[in-house]
Amino acid sequence: MVDGILADFGTSQIQITERAGFSMFRDTPLDMRMSPSHQKITAEIVLRDSSEKKLVEIFSSLGEERYSRKIAYAIVQARSARRIRTTKDLADIIEKVVPKSKTEKIHPATRVFQALRIFVNKELENIESFFPVALKLIKPSGKLVCISFHSLEDRIVKDFFKDKATERVVKILTPKVVTATEEELFANRASRSAKLRAVEILEV
Q1: Which sequence spans correspond to the domains of the chain?
Q2: Residue 145 to residue 173: CA distance in whole angstroms
Q3: What is the pTM assigned to this prediction?
Q4: pLDDT tens for residues 59-85?
């Protein structure tokens, strides 16, 4: 058993910059698999084979994309004419249908890329399956600290900790989510969306 576990659910910069399909700013094949040797389904296959209804579901539930219907329709229309093969192919389709925002600084395709990455890699399912294993590994009085990078991950962490606190399995150490300080944001811009929650494991 161990004294504690720090779980960082974020995607590494190496994965984003060196592997295909993760960034709309690099024109690469729409792959998005974290472990290509163990995964068969790529983002290109998802876009090619999914129904319009399924694409809407993926973009809205995993990307929280408010224009999911418009984007899904545009993808279905585009794929009937040509193969959607690269990140640029997909980003171009999205940019044509998503209105430009004066307030948001993110690329119009950001949420769709997030949704596809989460879907291809089963990221939320992996987080959910991680917790029972982690609880078995940590000693009483040990700590479980989780860092998430978007609201879907954070909601899973928050709800799990709350449920286990109700069952008196853990004690919540972070009643309010911990976010980066101004100093940390200045030193590491990637920390802007990081959310940290922690619990202490109780004697059962």
Answers
A1: 13-121, 123-201
A2: 9
A3: 0.87
A4: 999 999 999 999 999 999 999 999 999
| Domain at 123-201, CATH class | alpha beta
- Comparing CA positions, the residue from 146, 118, 124, 155 lying closest to residue 32 is 118
Which residue carries 């959910």 as its tokens? 128
Q: In what order do the strands lie in the sheet with 138-148?
A: 2-8, 138-148, 195-201, 170-172
Q: How far apart are CA 12 and CA 96, in angstroms?
A: 29
Whole-angstrom Cα distance, residue 118 to residue 187? 27
CB 168 within 8 A of CB 179: no
State which fold the 13-121 domain adopts.
DNA polymerase; domain 1 (1.10.150)
pLDDT tens-digit readout, 28-53: 999 999 888 899 999 999 999 999 99
